[in-house]
Design a protein that fits this description.
single chain; alpha+beta; Ubiquitin-like (UB roll); DNA polymerase, domain 1; five-stranded mixed β-sheet; 5 strands; 34% helix; binds FE2/S2 (inorganic) cluster
Length: 151
């Protein structure tokens, strides 16, 4: 089947199989480098994208589902090479060591703060519950997010 959707503000059109995941289409067909394969089963958050503004695991989303929708990756956030506040805070707080989890983390935080600019710790931890980081540890990540909330 042929699907058409907007990817980071650009219209794209691609032929997909009915069983193909959005993750595979983004990585293998469209060359998106910031969406990562981790577990493949909705447990790690490395593959998160925003679909119509909502965070979704692209490893569990069939590509056909995004026909007519807006898909955003972390690449859509920076404007003219200028990082967003969330991205700057991750850099300033050393919240990305290998960076494998970082795009998914940043998209989750972005979606959370758009909905709730001043989340409690509980709401923050709940939002991050589906994102695993295996090297930085969570303290610098939480510090980065708290610094954005304070600003
Ligand atoms: S690769 Fe999708 S949640 Fe882990
Ligand atoms: S920065 Fe390496 S997994 Fe999170």
């Amino acid at each position: 089947m042929r699907i058409r959707f907007r990817l980071d503000g650009q219209s794209v059109e691609v032929d997909v199989k009915h069983t193909e995941t959005l993750l595979r289409v983004l990585k293998d067909r469209l060359g998106v480098g910031s969406v990562h394969f981790g577990c493949g089963e909705g447990s790690c958050g490395a593959c998160i994208v925003l679909i119509d503004g909502r965070p979704r695991y692209s490893c569990l989303t069939l590509a056909g589902y995004v026909d007519g929708k807006e898909v955003s990756t972390v690449a859509a956030l920076a404007r003219d090479g200028e990082l967003t506040e969330i991205q700057k805070a991750f850099v300033e707080n050393n919240a990305a060591q290998c960076g494998y989890c970082t795009p998914g983390m940043i998209l989750i935080v972005r979606a959370l703060l758009e909905k709730n600019p001043s989340p409690s710790d509980e709401e923050l931890f709940d939002a991050l519950a589906g994102n695993l980081c295996r090297c930085t540890g969570y303290v610098p990540i939480i510090n980065a997010i708290r610094s954005v909330i304070k600003r």
